[in-house]
Specification:
The chain contains five helices and no strands. It is an all-alpha fold. The two termini are about 25 Å apart. It comes from Spirosoma foliorum.
């Protein structure tokens, strides 16, 4: 039993490190695009490489509103994903293997599922917008797949409900003893 707890604790520690790395990576990507986006209004050359080759120069020259809208969708999705990762790091730093079922963890899991649903909604709107842009401009823009966000939101929501039930069972057991 002790061996499993130690192994589980090690896995959670590794996952916490990986989550922090992913969170910082997403923050860097979001910040780089946000700064490049701001700079592009002063220096239009910045549009040619917003982040790792993301070139929206032609779209900006065609219509500034299209450009601002597309970058806004990209930034919104990245911010929501980063927020979900931040909430995950919060859980991993607060979870105790001696008493994993706490209402705080269950509520944070539920928040993560809502953030993921929000990211899916924004991503779906972004996909619809890029489809509309394709018809309007003849250019294809990648907005990324969003279906997995809805799938992950569903899984996290189910896990949050299991945690809530775990808290209820724990409370009932404490009252019985």
């Amino acid at each position: 039993m002790t061996h499993k707890s130690t192994r589980t604790q090690q896995i959670l520690s590794v996952m916490q490190i990986l989550t922090w790395i992913a969170y910082i990576g997403l923050c860097i990507k979001t910040g780089a695009i946000l700064i490049s986006f701001g700079v592009s209004f002063i220096n239009p050359e910045a549009v040619k490489n917003l982040y790792k080759g993301l070139d929206l120069d032609h779209l900006r020259q065609m219509n500034i509103t299209y450009y601002v809208s597309l970058v806004s969708f990209i930034l919104a999705i990245l911010m929501l994903k980063a927020h979900a990762l931040f909430l995950t790091t919060t859980i991993l730093s607060k979870i105790s293997l001696a008493n994993p079922f706490t209402m705080e963890v269950a509520q944070t899991l539920e928040k993560i599922s809502y953030v993921l649903v929000s990211a899916w909604i924004v991503g779906s709107l972004s996909n619809a917008y890029t489809s509309w842009l394709l018809k309007r401009t003849g250019e294809s823009f990648s907005s990324g797949a969003t279906d997995e966000l809805l799938f992950m939101a569903g899984l996290v929501f189910i896990i949050s409900q299991v945690f809530k039930r775990g808290v209820e069972i724990q409370a009932e057991n404490e009252l019985t003893v």
